[in-house]
Write a structure and sequence with these properties.
heterodimer, A: about 375 residues, alpha+beta, Jelly Rolls, Serine Threonine Protein Phosphatase 5, Tetratricopeptide repeat, 13-stranded mixed β-sheet, 13 strands, globular, B: about 200 residues, mainly alpha, Rna Polymerase Sigma Factor, Chain: A, Arc Repressor Mutant, subunit A, 2 domains, 9 helices
């Protein structure tokens, strides 16, 4: 039996609808609603729209000013020798450590060729460009992650992944290394706990402190500048064609937003290292979470399961499902806000879509102030 | 999709500031859908003015609670279904179903007096059977079988589990079929509907 479209709807006439509307407007005005705190988001959106139009106009003007016949310059390498562990930001990736390396950038790819040393990276994954670390005949490609590369300058490479995943390629063999794992040239894939501390060939510091100029690879498009975050000794070997240093350009707003999202720590996260530990911990937590009692232990356990599914296991969909269950079962639990933020972080990990924005909107609605809420407002307003 | 979402957020923001134009705009955007759903649940426009107004008053009262997890339309539908449920639960009288069918909607398209009369009588008798159902069963049946919403959506709207919703629809269908077995007019109307589907 289906009666769909079999019962025609008798429309209300205009007069009745007008009367309802009139009474509704009067009724709503009598509700005496206070101005909403999120009302400013409309202004924010309008402001952002104006700024976007202005930025588009400036970029359009700049592009228009470029002679059509001028050939695009080939990507040039920038050489860095960083001896004191200071940080360098390149195209959404933060590089720290004591290493000597070259950076070559083009719109689709950032190639970091290590000569030797230790490099710690926090990379915001951008599907539009890949970031590859090359150490001798090994290539490590980020898949949105935090990891470390040690290279002795000859052949031995050691990779440690603390968040997300990287792809290691050597001699046409591809290995995906997930968080909590490592990889070495001689032992292949193994757990982090199996890795010994590496004695890294030290890179001698250069005596004179030299600032690294931000040299755009493509002078007519906006590039993320190289940013010095601490005082450091740097030896910079400029490319031969280098021109006058350009002023720092604003970073990609979406990359900025993802960086901002990641900068908010996950609260009440259990301290687990490695896949096997996480799985064991989840098994323990499940006993608590699935118990019939609805107490604070159960709510905390369920939340922590979601955290572990997200990191280090990387099972985002499962983590979101667990969070949904948490919200249904423990609405008002003490981890509620942390869980809501975790949902924002997972939902916005790969794209700023409607799911992400709804999670952010929901968060800002429930937690109107604080740094995470400010990020949530930015996500909600992002277009 | 994203534009609709941003539109909804902006409109809700304006409504929350008490802007009458925004109130009117939200009502105009959603009134036809809400009215159609309520009509299919109730079977007539009797009390519809009050119900529609009540539904939207409820919407505006709880607008601050819209967390954008569901689309605004879905959220408004949920509020409307609650209003309908309350109405059905509280009424102590049968809803008098008005004759509804016009020529265009008669099966086969060739409207004859007999067919129109059959459709009118069929609808009236169908809703007479539905009047004997509980509010929850009637909502589940009408939203699924008449309004054409998937069972999962109906479950979400009425705030029940999918299993409970399926059971309600199944029981309501059984009662309608039992009534049809004894009522040739209803049987013929349902049979025509079956053929048309």
């Amino acid at each position: 039996m289906t009666l769909r479209d079999r019962i025609p709807v008798e429309q209300l006439d205009d007069e009745r609808l007008t009367n309802i509307e009139r009474r509704l407007v009067v009724g709503v005005s009598e509700l005496s609603m206070k101005p909403a705190p999120r009302g400013f988001s409309a202004l924010w959106l309008r402001g952002a729209g104006v700024l976007a139009i202005a930025a588009a106009a400036v970029i359009g003007w700049k592009l228009h000013a470029v002679p059509a016949t001028e050939p695009a310059p080939a990507p040039a390498a920038q050489h860095f020798t960083v001896a004191d562990g200071s940080k360098i930001s390149v195209d959404g990736a933060t590089l720290a450590g004591t290493a000597s390396y070259d950076v070559t950038r083009d719109p689709q790819r950032v190639l970091i060729e290590m000569q030797r040393g230790r490099l710690e990276l926090a990379v915001v994954h951008d599907p539009r460009r890949t970031l590859v670390i090359r150490a001798a005949d090994t290539e490590i490609e980020d898949v949105g992650t935090k990891f470390r590369v040690d290279f002795d300058g000859a052949a031995d490479v050691q990779v440690r992944v603390t968040e997300g995943e990287v792809k290691v390629t050597r001699h046409a063999q591809v290995v995906r290394v997930a968080a909590g794992n490592g990889w070495t040239t001689d032992r292949g894939l193994l757990a982090l706990s199996e890795l010994d501390p590496v004695v890294v060939a030290q890179v001698a510091p250069t005596p004179a402190p030299v600032a690294v100029p931000a040299t755009p690879m493509r002078p007519h498009t906006a590039e993320v500048p190289v940013v010095r975050t601490q005082p450091r000794h740097v030896e910079a070997l400029p490319a031969p064609h280098r021109e006058t240093p350009a002023a720092p350009q604003p970073a990609d707003p979406f990359v900025d937003l993802r960086v901002a999202i990641r900068s908010i720590p996950i609260e009440r996260a259990p301290n687990i290292d490695g896949h096997s530990d996480a799985a064991t911990e989840i098994a323990k937590l499940k006993k608590l979470a699935y118990s019939t009692t609805v107490g604070p232990e159960a709510s905390q356990a369920l939340y922590q399961i979601a955290v572990l599914l997200y990191r280090p296991l990387g099972q985002d969909a499962e983590a979101l499902r667990t969070l949904d269950w948490y919200f249904r079962r423990f609405a008002g639990g003490k981890e509620m806000h942390a869980a809501m933020w975790l949902r924002v972080r997972i939902a916005c990990e790969h794209s700023l879509d409607d799911v992400c924005r709804r999670a952010a909107y929901s968060y800002q609605h429930d937690v109107p102030s604080g740094p995470a809420s400010e990020v949530a407002v930015r996500i909600t307003n992002a277009q | 999709m994203a534009t609709a979402y941003v539109d909804d957020v902006l409109l809700v923001d304006r409504c929350l500031t008490g802007e009458p134009a925004a109130t009117r705009e939200l009502f105009r955007r959603h009134r036809n859908r809400v009215h159609a759903s309520l009509f299919r649940v109730l079977g007539s426009n009797r009390d519809m003015d009050d119900l529609l107004q009540e539904a939207f008053i409820q919407v505006f009262q709880s607008l601050r609670g819209w967390r954008a997890e569901a689309s605004l339309a879905t959220w408004i539908d949920r509020v409307s279904v609650r209003v309908a449920y309350r109405y059905l639960s509280q009424r102590g009288r049968r809803i008098q179903t008005a004759p509804l069918i016009d020529e265009e909607t008669v099966p086969g398209g060739e409207a004859t007096d007999d067919r129109r009369q059959l459709a009118r009588d069929g609808v009236r008798r169908l809703y007479a059977v539905l009047d004997d159902l509980g509010a929850a069963a009637r909502l589940a049946f009408t939203l699924h079988e008449i309004d054409g919403r998937p069972l999962a959506e109906v479950a979400d709207l009425v705030g029940s589990s999918l299993t409970a919703t399926k059971l309600r629809v199944w029981r309501a269908r059984g009662k309608v079929e039992a009534a049809a077995a004894e009522d040739p007019v209803l049987r013929e109307f349902l049979g025509t509907a079956e053929v048309a589907s």
